[in-house]
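Batch 3, record 17
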Amino acid sequence: MGKMLIRNIGTLVSGDVSDPILDADSILVSDGIIGAVGSDLSAEGVDIIIDAQGTTVTPGLIDSHCHVVIGDFTPRQRMLDFLDSELHGGVTQVISAGEVHLPGRPKDAAGVKALAILAAKAFDNFRPGGIKVRGGALILEPGLTEEDFAEMAREGVKTVGEIGLGKVKKPEDAAPMVAWAKKYGMTVMMHTGGTSIPGSSVVTADQVIATNPDVVSHLNGGPTSVSPEEARKIVMETDLVYEISHCGNPKMILEVCRLTREKNAYHRVVIGNDHPSGTGVVPLGILRVLNMIASIGEIPPEIAVCMASGNTARVHKLDSGFIEPGKAADLVIMDAPMGSVGDDALAALAAGDIPGVSKVIVDGEIKVQKSRNTPPPKRAATL
Ligand SMILES: [Zn+2]
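Prediction for the assembled complex:
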């Protein structure tokens, strides 16, 4: 794979909400891993040099909520290549929230276990366009045993998809399975708010608290939200990680941002697309949430980017999400779009604009040379 140097970086976003902007202008990548971050790093022995032209480099964005099934096809909206399209929106990794759209999805313990293992292994071997997919998010159904969780963990299943999608919904039924999942290292997500599709159910704050997942999915609704009082309870009275999703309730995005600022809970927010869904396929969903929360939601734009990278990496135990030596070199180079009132990518987000992406890099390899989905950047990185 060799060495890559990215230099002349104008703004470098770390992925860490507690220290979001790094004082450095270059990144050295060796064999797909970030080797050094600093100023004026030497180009000696480097195979590829990218001149960022004074623009912004961030960790690859991570979509914490994607309803993949198998391959780059969604039965939900009968569309191809939606994952490749999301890569062109600066997303280098998506996390499955449950392969719930599989036609004829099995609803017995053996079936959901097989589906989770199959999706986890298939996406380990398949990166559409280069995007990383953590597939295989188990949907909880009655009859699963502790030995099932142990076996799935051994076979590579790392996630429990949104609790509420399957028949195990009540906290007293779900809590033992949640404990097994956590014991074997899985990250557990839980649907919150009103019903999404026929067959799903309303999930309240008290049910979430009694179930104790790792991630409260779409606190702003998916698509129907909990009430502001219920959202307040989750933000103020728990330490749970919670998600702001694109396909949720926009008014509640503002409320969740307000609560986050009040509680100083920036480290607890992750950003999800929640597509493909009834809302559709949204290639720029993550960038759109970032511009919403950074503009009308009054979250500093560099913090917003860290919510969509380092925060998600931490709760899902990924090797990416931060710009620091030893992490996977999943990176995005972007600038304000042409015509924006913002001078750079962060100012554009704060102004409510979608930045222009000029390079997307996954494991140290350039996967997107020029985004086909974002508006063109004012300044594009060059090779
Ligand atoms: Zn949901």
